[in-house]
Amino acid sequence: MTKPIELSNVTKAYLEEYQRILDKMMQGMSYVTITCSISENFIKQIIPHQVAAIKMSENVLRYTTNIPVQNLALEIIKTHKEMVESLEALENRCCIVQNSEYELYEYMCAYQQITEAMFKAMCAPPVSNSININYLREMIVHHQGGIRLAQNVLRFCICQELIPILKCMMQILCEQLALMEKLLDSLQDCDC
């Protein structure tokens, strides 16, 4: 059995804020009043997920001196703010598209499986004294969950205006995910 690592005060402060952000995201994604519109439900459920990415990135920017991590965090803040604005602008129009009880059941079953796996992984990422590595590990799981959530909603009859936003969101998340995995590999190799 390996001895747990001793965390620095800076790492502890970073992780405490991360936990607050994560708790708020999980609450926001779990306690949505479900309607007969998958489009409306998804928008209400995904906005706390997007806001968490912004807050997680703001958190790492308080501590990191790694320029590629800073650039990534700034890019995530910018793109996720744009996604939140696009989703909020659609919410009132997309609620018009209604779904059957069966579709709603299928959507919610998959949604719960995806979010449970994501929450579990985000609550217990491997932790080190490298804030950069911690951030990347957390954000990789976050983005993987976001991609799966978007893929899930695209299986159903949804608001047509939402589809291009979802496709753009998936493309951005995939690009950022590839960058994060590359960055994580380089940081783990040098243990920075």
TrEMBL record:
All residue ranges annotated as the DUF305 domain in the record: 41-180
Protein name per the record: DUF305 domain-containing protein
Xref: PANTHER family: SLL0788 PROTEIN
Residue ranges of coiled coil: none
